[in-house]
Write a structure and sequence with these properties.
Length: 82
Amino acid sequence: MEKAFDRVWHDGLIYKLLDTPLPPAFIRVVTGFLQRRSFCVAVDDVLSAPRPIRAGVPQNSCLSPELYALCTDDIPTLRGHL
């Protein structure tokens, strides 16, 4: 799945985390990990204003694969139908 980690919707992921038995302190850590992230674009010597990132889990983070798995865990599969 191309760019799958880029498409994880932060608010939806936090909603799913709140529906798990995970400790509230851990959910606060993950929420802080995802919120207040931004990006800028540089073209030649001009840097754009920061823009918020509302989707995607950070690349090269050991937590990102787990967050992606949690986000996609409830997607129905065709297991047994193929």
